[in-house]
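Key idea: predict the complex, not the pieces.
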Amino acid sequence: MIADVVIVGGGPAGSTAAYLLSGWGMRVLLLDKHRFPRPKLCGGLLTAKTSALVSRIFGVPSPELDRLSEHVAWGYGLYYRRRPILEDSTEEPFRLVRREVYDAFLLEKAREAGAEVLEGERVVDLDPEDPERMVIRTAKGRVLKARFILGADGVKSLVRRRLGFSEKAAWRRGLALALEVSIPRRALPVAEPRVYLGYVRTGYAWAFPRKEDLLLGIGALLSEAGGLSRAFGEFLSDLGIELRQGPRAHLIPFGNFLRRPARGRVLLAGDAAGLVEPLLGEGIFYAHRSGELAARALRLHLEQGHPLEEIYPFLLEQNILPQLRQALKLRGFFFRRAHLLSRNPFRRIWHLLRRPCLDVVHGKRHYFLSRWMSF
Ligand SMILES: Cc1cc2nc3c(=O)[nH]c(=O)nc-3n(C[C@H](O)[C@H](O)[C@H](O)COP(=O)(O)OP(=O)(O)OC[C@H]3O[C@@H](n4cnc5c(N)ncnc54)[C@H](O)[C@@H]3O)c2cc1C
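Result:
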């Protein structure tokens, strides 16, 4: 089969693009190295903007999203180590999903829309055979051809590496390492997602409740990776938790987003393009959104002849990149001064600012409060 588009990776970025492109009548082949449901280390926290986006794209109404979620929280907590800065309610819920379930659900939606999905197929190579077709090879020896390729294959993206994007200084400087562990929910009475500052200089720790367990994690830039286990140990000890098993680790793009993730007939979306918000580490929203924008770019290219290498970066610039740049600018300032937030008068100021800040998190406005967002 010669597909119009081969999508590598069936996470949120890949399934979104596959769903839309198939719905528009294109022949889509999606390959994932895993069989679904597959494990994915993630906090699984969906902000309101993510829920709204998923509802709009996949036509999943809020009650169905609630059923898909492990937990729906109408509040949150912000702490500086053990000291509370803020414990507050929210007008919009945070949904906490188990990624194994969430990703499998959305991949099924893509399949229902007409995408052919090959699970357990690891892509090991790709190269242009002629100006019109790309060749994709899998570990099982399958050779596939496509007019276009979308790399949605996560932070260690093979597609990105094959395109020749630099993996060196700038990319590595913007990578974070995250550790995460699951403990039984009864071990700690936490009903809302909590964020803990002060254990690392370039990130934070978290406690995210699900139905039966609680995810405890910590993430910081790779420059701090040497001390991350010790920092995680301090966090756990402050919570009074003793682990029976070691945490699992995973990389997160954390400020190394690519401005132009397009080369020839190949596009990158989601973590593969580094599209994660560099203050909060929120990636699910940006994976869905960039998957959608990549699909729109392909459609505009095919229907109106817009050059792919121009139209996709343009759409990203219009819809995603300003927000990521603003978050990156704020990050140093915010984490450096985190210790002040639990003390007056800063604590009081933070209380006054909490609604606009929450609006930013939920996507009702940009960081610098300049423009209302629409999804
Ligand atoms: C510990 C941790 C906690 C996080 N918590 C949150 C959170 O609470 N909220 C949030 O919004 N974000 C969170 N993130 C970020 C979020 O998980 C990612 O940004 C998001 O999963 C990106 O989606 P994606 O579709 O781009 O890639 P992924 O979800 O990583 O999917 C990539 C897919 O590609 C497949 N693949 C990879 N290589 C190949 C290959 N060679 N051939 C075929 N298939 C391949 C993989 O099997 C995978 O299914 C967290 C990340 C970590 C590490």
